[in-house]
TrEMBL record:
Similarity comment: family membership: Belongs to the glycerate kinase type-1 family.
SUPFAM superfamilies noted in UniProt: Glycerate kinase I (SSF110738)
Single GO MF annotation: kinase activity
Keywords: Kinase, Transferase
Protein name: Glycerate kinase
Source organism of the structure: Nocardia testacea
Pfam families: Gly_kinase (PF02595)
InterPro entries: Glyc_kinase_flavodox-like_fold, Glycerate_kinase, Glycerate_kinase_RE-like, Glycerate_kinase_sf
């Protein structure tokens, strides 16, 4: 039995690499060999997934979301550089976990892009999950040489608080990535502005109050107008594009730079050569922190299950709210949930999560004596 272990992260508990390691450890105790392939869908953990697939990691020193210096890393391999928000200026870079919905900036992401361009990639992949800012990508662009000024010509700090004061945008001294294909890998389809925009939908997750959301959305509207009168006549149309609202508007900035937005799950399966490792596999094990009604909407486990057919796919989740009638159409032969093996809350408990993943891996290994399609989960 040849098993491919290809999970996403269990957010808040374990990165994808450790999820894969623990499942593989459990399989090994049942005498089953496996190949580990940690995955990502364009969110946090994308650089780690690329490194696990053979990309070279490069540490970078950048400004965190609050402007505090910190360390992140990028991944470079075969003409492609992967840069992510989460490990450069995402929520986890905020000091003491304190959210700053108006003052957080995407500047560190732009610094990481500048570092990535030193390796002369043909393709730049931007992973935008886990952002802390709602600055319309001002910070990212400022790190590349853009400047933002108010009506008096005073330069502004690139953050959401400043967006409503921007009058002119100057890109004349910007170091733009000429000749580089820019890809935004993600599944956010929100526009930049309005009730479905970056501030309204994602601002509260970043600590924004109702008043902050209104302030930020007004500021982003003004920022778009400033771009339109500063040599970007298509700025208003770009702001309405699907994905422009991703990562607090970093998607908008990326589109202004000529980026293409693609499905994060599909793109990373291609980038990490999933199909090559699928060849010859008898079983695929995937998973993520939660498998629920949203899983079928383009999330990684479902996309992977569709691509794996006819190879059977077992899903493992921190929690699952799906019944058999729901998971089988999604492409899973079985779904194991950590909650089926304990009465304790596993969220934020890495040690318990590791222990249960090993146990589940062992259970899956023991059921491979017959084709997995015929097996149902024996949860206890």
């Amino acid at each position: 039995m040849r098993v491919l272990v290809a999970p996403d992260k269990f957010k808040g508990s374990l990165p994808a690499s450790e999820v894969a390691d623990r499942l593989a450890e459990g399989l090994a105790t049942a005498g089953v060999d496996s190949h580990r392939m940690p995955l990502a869908d364009g969110g946090d953990g994308s650089v780690d997934a690329a490194v696990a697939a053979g990309f070279t990691p490069h540490p970078v020193t950048v400004a965190g979301a609050a402007g505090n210096p910190g360390g992140g890393r990028i991944a470079v391999g075969d003409g492609t550089a992967v840069v992510e928000v989460a490990n450069t200026c995402g929520l986890t870079t905020l000091p003491d976990g304190r959210k700053l919905p108006l003052d957080a900036s995407s500047f560190g992401m732009g610094q990481a892009i500048s570092e990535a361009l030193r390796y002369r990639p043909r393709r730049l992949v931007l992973a935008l999950g886990g952002s802390a800012s709602t600055d319309g990508g001002m910070g990212l662009l400022a790190a590349l040489g853009f400047t933002f000024a108010d009506e008096r010509g005073v330069l502004l700090r690139p953050c959401g608080r400043s967006a409503g004061r921007v009058h002119t945008v100057d890109s004349s001294r910007a170091a733009l990535p000429a000749g580089v294909e820019i890809v935004v890998a993600g599944d956010v389809t929100n526009p930049l502005l309005g009730p479905n925009g970056a501030a309204a939908v994602y601002g509260p997750q970043k600590g924004a109050t109702a008043a902050d959301v209104r302030f930020l959305d007004t500021g982003l509207n003004n920022l778009v107008a400033a771009f339109a009168r500063s040599g970007y006549p298509d700025a208003r149309a770009v702001a309405t594009a699907a994905g422009a609202g991703s990562a607090g508007g970093i998607g908008f900035a990326a589109l202004l730079l000529g980026a293409t937005i693609v499905s994060g799950a599909e793109y990373f399966l291609e980038l990490l050569e999933f199909d090559r490792y699928l060849t010859g596999a008898d079983l695929v094990i995937t998973g993520e922190g939660s498998i629920d009604e949203q899983t079928a909407n383009g999330k990684l486990p479902t996309v992977l299950a569709r691509r794996s057919r006819p190879v059977p796919v077992v899903a493992v989740a921190g929690r699952s709210t799906l019944s058999r009638e729901q998971w089988e159409p999604a492409g899973f032969t079985t779904v194991y949930s950590l909650g089926d093996f304990t009465d304790r809350d596993t969220a934020g408990d890495p040690e318990l999560t590791r222990e249960l993943l090993i146990r589940i891996g062992r259970r899956i290994g023991r059921t491979t004596a017959v084709p997995p399609r015929t097996r149902s989960a024996q949860n206890r």
